[in-house]
Structure formats: C-alpha cells, structure tokens
Design brief:
With 195 residues, the chain is α+β, with helices and mostly antiparallel strands. Helix content is 51%, strand content 21%. The strands form two sheets. Strands 1-8-3-6 form a four-stranded antiparallel beta sheet. The chain has a four-stranded antiparallel beta sheet with strand order 2-7-4-5.
Length: 195
C-alpha cells in the first residue's frame, strides 16, 4: 500500500528514494467506512492523510445544518484541513468518506519529526498547497455565477469522476445548486444527446 504514496512522492520530484522510504513508515493505514469522519469540524485537526483508495468530501455546515461541500478528494491525493493542521487548531470543516476508503495518515508529532529529518517535505507540502489553491481557483472560475446547466456540463466534460462516483445530493451541494436543478440539468443534457 505504501507503493502508491512512494509513487506520488516520486512524481513530485524533490525526494531521494532513501527519503521516501524513510518517510512512508510514518504514514499508518486507517480504514474508513462510507460516512465515517476523517476530520470533524470543531475538533483538533490531528492528521494529514494520503488517500490510497476511496473518496472523501470536505464541507462546512451552515446554521440550518445544511452541508456546503467545498471539495472532493480521491485516490493519490493528500487530504487535511491544512491551516488548522499546521496551527494545531480546531478544524472549520469536516472531511468525511463518501466511499469505503483507506487513508494513510500521519499525526502532527510525526509530521514535525519528519520535517526536521527530511527537509524536502517542506517542498512536498508547498506543492500540495499549490494544488489546493489551483483547485479552489478552478472551482471559482468554473462554478461561480453559472447556470445549473453550465455547471453540470462542465463537470461532465472536465470532472467525470464526480458524476460517476459522487451522490447527486453531494454533487448538487458542491455545485451550489439544488438537487432538483441538477436533475433538471441532467435531463436537458440527456435529451439533447438523444435528439
């Protein structure tokens, strides 16, 4: 299972094989069933995870208890609430499995030890943070102030994994539309393909 993490670290291109092999021993497998929490809002953010298999959603809950999903993470991606992990504060959002998942996780103490021993981890985290920023920027560019039809069309064309693996209510929340609007958009696109 650590092979996927080594392969991912290798793709970033800043660590030696020795550093990678040393690093992966600190990441322990953690099984999550669909619906289990990796991180809970208002609890200390204690881990960074690397998704070996499965998928998670990150969300904040509003005053009415409605989930506002901000992102999904899949295999070969790091996941945590980075600002709160680094500051060792309570998370402002929850991260929860949307599929049965295996996440290799490292706790804060081991992470600090690793940073002290393998300085290239600073570059790895920088790359991960840059990817997070790019994902957020793409989200704003492609989903803000667009119609439900345009949003769904973009997902179909550019993020088909979301359509294939994410429940309709979660996808609607992520897109910032109602489940009904999403169903309508799906119907319009399907009818257009049939004609």
């Amino acid at each position: 299972m650590t092979d996927a993490l080594i392969k991912h670290l290798f793709s970033i291109g800043v660590m030696s094989a020795e550093e990678m092999n040393f690093s992966v021993q600190f990441f322990k497998p953690h099984d999550l069933k669909k619906g289990d929490f990796f991180i809970r809002a208002d609890e200390p953010c204690r881990h960074i995870g690397f998704i070996f298999s499965g998928a998670v959603k990150a969300y904040a809950t509003d005053k009415e208890g409605k989930e506002n999903i901000t992102c999904f993470k899949f295999e070969n991606e790091f996941v945590t609430s980075f600002p709160e992990f680094v500051a060792q504060e309570k998370s402002r959002r929850s991260i929860r499995a949307v599929e049965d998942s295996i996440i290799h996780r490292i706790n804060y103490a081991d992470y600090q030890y690793l940073l002290g021993r393998v300085t290239s981890w600073n570059k790895v985290i920088q790359v991960v943070m840059e990817q997070e920023y790019i994902q957020k920027e793409q989200y704003l560019l492609n989903y803000n102030n667009k119609s439900a039809l345009d949003k769904y069309h973009y997902v179909l064309s550019n993020e088909p994994k979301l359509v294939q693996r994410i429940a309709t209510q979660d996808l609607a929340s992520y897109l910032g539309i109602t489940q009904r609007s999403l169903t309508r958009a799906k119907g319009q696109i399907h009818r257009a393909k049939v004609l």
